[in-house]
Amino acid sequence: MGKKRRFNDNDLFTEFIRDNKENCYRLAYSYVKNSEDALDIVQDAIQKAILSYDSLQDLNMLKSWFFRIVVNTSLDFLRKHKRVSIVDAETMEFISSGKEDHYENVDLERALDQLAPEYKSIIVLRFFEDLKIEEVAEVLNENVNTIKTRLYKALKLLRIEMKDEMIKGAN
């Protein structure tokens, strides 16, 4: 009879979560654009992972397995709530504070928000989470060639969207 895995303070999963909590939060936040919702998603994803931990066949795949849970939990959240992203309190406070301007790449963020989820997921995982194409394919449960094709199309769409933003800004 196989040994059932148990969670305790020394467990690999617990260590993984401690080491990757910021990445998991950032990944969830990239979908919902709200800090409280992103924290809820990460918490839900951890709970789902704990409940299905025995289904993880290869511990070397822990990162992509858990990131897939975070992505799916984020997408489920968006489907359930179908709402427009709202500005969180920190952003609102910063905007109204009159502090020195910080020019973040707002155009890129807007352009990313315009992408369909299957394209946005690839861009976020590849460039913001710095995953390799093969890891992105594993997280999204897709073929590597499909990911490459979608990445190419997503980058092309982003370029078009960014050009449109620049044209709007020039007017």
From TrEMBL:
What InterPro entries does the annotation carry? RNA_pol_sigma-70-like, RNA_pol_sigma-70_dom, RNA_pol_sigma70_r2, RNA_pol_sigma70_r4_t2, RNA_pol_sigma_r2, RNA_pol_sigma_r3/r4-like, WH-like_DNA-bd_sf
Return the similarity comment.
Belongs to the sigma-70 factor family. ECF subfamily.
Q: Name one Pfam family in it.
A: Sigma70_r2
Q: Name one GO molecular function term.
A: DNA binding
Could you tell me which residue ranges the RNA polymerase sigma factor 70 region 4 type domain spans? 107-158
UniProt keywords (A-Z) are:
Sigma factor, Transcription, Transcription regulation
Q: Which organism is it from?
A: Cytobacillus dafuensis
> Which residue spans traverse the membrane?
none
Is Transmembrane helix found in the keyword set?
no
Which intervals hold domain RNA polymerase sigma-70 region? 17-83
| Protein known as | Sigma-70 family RNA polymerase sigma factor
> A GO term (biological process) for this protein?
DNA-templated transcription initiation
Listed CDD domains: Sigma70_r4
